[in-house]
Amino acid sequence: MKKIIPIICVLFYNTSFYAQTASGDIEPYLWNLIDIVPGNSGNNYTKPLGSQLIIWNEIINLILDNDLVNARLIANGLNYQLTEFTDTTLSPNQTFYVLEEKLPQSNYWGSYVFSKTPKRGNLVIQAPHVKQDINTGFEAVYCFKENVASALFINGTDRCNHTTYSSCGGLTSNCISGSATEAYRISDQAHNIDNMFQKTTENLFANLPSSVFTQLHGFSPITGDPDVIISNGSRETPAIDYAVMIQDALFVEDNTLTFELPHININWNRLTAFSNTQGRLINYSTENCNQSAEGGTGRFIHIEQELSKLRVNSLGCLKMSNALASAFIEDSDGDGLATGSNLNDSDYCDPDPFNQNCGVCDNTIFSDNFDISMGNWIDDGNNTFPSTINALGEGSIRLKHGIEAGNPDLDVDPQSSMFTNPLNLSSYTDLKIELSYFSPTVEGYTPGDDFILEVSTDNSVSFTII
């Protein structure tokens, strides 16, 4: 594929290309990794073994812990190396860790880049189709560098590279001609769960609790299509709606752009990303491979772009980069907030006050949404169960009490309740509970009904009403 984005920078290395350290401009360095990605045939891609996925996850843990020595040692066993790259074209200079496969490649699992000191600690940029979705790889690299995002994922082969089909649900016409469809291929990183792209997403989703995974894609529009389709992988509208913020920011950059957002226009069904396995994971699908998510976290953003306005050249990439900069404020501690010019501030670290990426936190837990897995809440069996679809449009706890209508022989326990797994709240000074409720029955709330909060400090032996 011929690059459309012009290379105007000179890259300097302190040793050879595959040295453990390098310096210069990170963009052409990463462009070279994209250039050598195999095309749509050849069966180059190797599906990783379960044991290799475990080893890979440990490598990512070590990188996040800044333990480069051990990360390099373990990565070598997978034919990978970790290059510490200092970008001297940025002011101040920025250090990036590039997890890349050594030559000759044998696995083709992709390249993964991490910022040592990110400016936008909650922004993760992913490019899962750098060959077929023309220029999305170069666009992702540009946006990553300009925003000094937390991480960048680049896939290792064309999505159609391998002839073996994925076991994950969904159909596509991307790898065959005409209007026929088939299952996704195992080389398609956005539609498989047993790969390094998914495993790294899983790790960062857990270890960077405020991270938002923004995937850049490209499509060929048909009649009725807009220029951009931005999905969060569900029909839900999250509390922080990055999809809308990116749309608004892109429109500021180019007011000729047209958009569709499937969670806003619920009748829109094309390129919704509901079968994307990273999106399913991030949106708490009960089975990432075959089950679309019912709810939405807002932490997965899937951007489909037609070619001519955004990803055709560096000017188009600048629009996307500026839009991401507007939606994701500079915030080096990764909690998604910043106070004035203090980028590593002491605002809350949602949702984990012990987040290693945060500075001094306010020690506040925010549990605004009961997701499909109910977060830390558990049904104790007394006629209490989670619901992800209700009149409020978000997840909830549902309680049943009294005599069940139409069945006077079934006395429902009036003390319906939920409880949490043990929580270490030793660092907290205050506990504040806020809730809202609605009744689906005509009778509604009756005198004598109560909401009671109890706390145990002796491992559930006894409880105190607070």
Radius of gyration: 24 Å
Strand order of the largest sheet: 1-2-3-4-6-5-9-12-10-11
Approximate strand percentage = 15-25%
Number of strands: 20
Which percent bin holds the helix content? 10-25%
Regarding quaternary structure, how should these chains be classified? single chain
The rounded distance between the terminal residues' Cα atoms is 65 Å
Q: List the total number of helices.
A: 9
Mean pLDDT: 82
Unreliable stretches (pLDDT < 50, length at least 5) are 1-18, 346-375, 387-395, 402-411
Order of helices and strands: EHHHEEEEHEEEHEEHEHEHHEEEEEEEE
Secondary structure category? alpha/beta
Shape: globular
Largest sheet: 10 strands, mixed
- Structural domain count: 2
What features would you describe in this structure?
- The protein is of the alpha/beta class and 466 residues long.
- The protein has two domains: 21-327; 370-466, no CATH class.
- It contains nine helices and 20 strands.
- It has helices spanning 26-35, 50-64, 68-76, 136-147, 196-207, 242-253, 277-282, 307-311, 314-327, and strands at 21-24, 80-87, 94-101, 111-115, 120-127, 149-154, 171-172, 182-183, 212-218, 228-231, 259-260, 300-305, 377-379, 384-387, 396-399, 402-403, 411-412, 418-420, 454-455, 464-465.
- The strands form six sheets. The chain has a ten-stranded mixed beta sheet, sandwiched between helices. Strands 7-8 form a two-stranded antiparallel sheet.
- A hairpin with an 8-residue loop joins β19 (454-455) and β20 (464-465).
- α2 (50-64) crosses α5 (196-207) and α4 crosses α9 (314-327).
- The longest helix is centred in the first third of the chain and has 15 residues, at 50-64.
